[in-house]
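From the methods appendix. Each design record in this collection lists the tokenized structure first, followed by the designed amino acid sequence. Records were kept in a plain field format so they could be parsed without special tools. The example shown here is representative of the layout used throughout.

RECORD:
FOLD TOKENS (144 positions):
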């Protein structure tokens, strides 16, 4: 806390109500935090959540996200995080065109899903298929 944000108890109202407490907090908050608080209040009121956190640092936004997720039931937190991270879930079994459907699923998957399914798929391949796959990947690297 910076010196300009500190205050003595004598400066705060005697009777602390939620409204006076919030006012005192905002009085000593940084300009960026005051701006973000006003935008967050507007976002909650208008249900418009785009861009309100633009003046916060990545660490501050992460702290808000952490606090919000911790306040939810585990199942709600998981569903919320999966939505934000664009989780695609498990790929569906191919119906007609396996490669086309695999590429479509991969376009929806997040980084963790891609890595998990790529490794699991590679490990499940027969040794000769693993060798062919590694040769194919090496050819792609050379071409790139």
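DESIGN:
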């Amino acid at each position: 806390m910076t010196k300009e944000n500190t205050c003595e108890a004598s400066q705060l109202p005697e009777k602390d109500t939620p409204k006076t407490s919030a006012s005192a907090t905002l009085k000593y908050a940084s300009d960026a935090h005051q701006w973000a608080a006003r935008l967050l209040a507007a976002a909650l009121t208008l249900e418009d959540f785009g861009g309100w956190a633009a003046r916060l640092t990545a660490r501050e936004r992460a702290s808000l996200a952490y606090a919000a997720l911790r306040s939810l039931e585990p199942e709600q937190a998981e569903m919320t995080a999966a939505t934000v991270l664009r989780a695609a879930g498990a790929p569906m079994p191919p119906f007609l065109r396996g490669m086309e459907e695999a590429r479509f699923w991969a376009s929806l998957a997040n980084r963790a899903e891609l890595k998990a399914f790529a490794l699991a798929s590679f490990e499940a391949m027969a040794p000769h298929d693993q060798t062919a796959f590694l040769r194919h990947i090496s050819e792609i690297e050379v071409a790139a």
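APPENDIX NOTE: The CA atoms of residues 13 and 20 lie 7 Å apart.
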